[in-house]
Amino acid sequence: MRDFSLHIMDIIENGLNGGATLIDLTVIEERKNNCLRITITDNGRGIPKDVLKKVLDPFYTTRVTRRVGLGLSLFREASKRCDGEFSIISDEGKGTQVDATFRLDHIDFPPMGDLASTMTTLIVGNPGVDFVYAHEVEGDTFQLDTRDIREELDGVEISHPQVVKYIGDTIRESLAELRKGGNKYNGQTNYR
Amino acid sequence: MAKLTIDDLKKIKERTHKDTALREGGATVKITVHMGTCGIAAGAREAMDALLEVMTETDREDIRIVTSGCMGMCSSEPNVTVETQGEEPVIYQHVDRNKMRQIFKRHVLLGEVQTDFALATG
Questions:
Q1: Is residue B79 scored above 80 in pLDDT?
Q2: Which residues in chain B have Cβ-Cβ distances shorter than 8 Å to A62?
């Protein structure tokens, strides 16, 4: 995975495959704590306790189409590489939460990538699922909740190309503004 | 700060309501972008971006886009499946932005299967 936005999409896909109808993504960048925190919560069917111990093993997967499962392992490795902490908690029947931190000034800190594209891809590809996305940079927050958007659209589908384009553009602009507001660190986090 | 404003959404709603009302027939083409770990790492999201872009250029309202997981053919990712009603589904392999645009314009809109990038049918 080349950047955070791809990792995030991959981890969210896990939740979607687990039957989630609501996905919550929170990204917090704090320079004073030298920390990036990414938290992904879903309300899918959760992971049984005995399986939870194995999910970080690359050679464990529940799928039958291939015999390796890399998504969570890759994300944890990225976090470890950047002196971060990684945790996954899951309640069977309630959902799963993946939480990872990264040291902002670490030399292996990956670029943020295109989160707007990650969100639009998820929204279009999963019309029955709602997404809540909050991105905080130095105390300023951008927030998006597809449930609110659906309500406003009143019948027009959220996956309509014009709506999707609008959502993507808004995320891109908002993140650029958040970035302008906060101090840059090493010019590393680029939102394209 | 740029925000999702209710006004903007209302404008889009008014603009699109007419199209939506005409549809009713449901989807006749389904495009599946495979988004497993392998697909994502290989660039499936870029194919998706290109697809969303060309979608805004067409008035066709009977095209559905969905994502799905890995098919088990990780070495040929990114994979995209095009299913047209009444025809056999076609799976495309190694789809990048340009191939995605071509698949959309030639296969989805005009019905010409792009055999050069097809992995399999059925």
A1: yes
A2: none
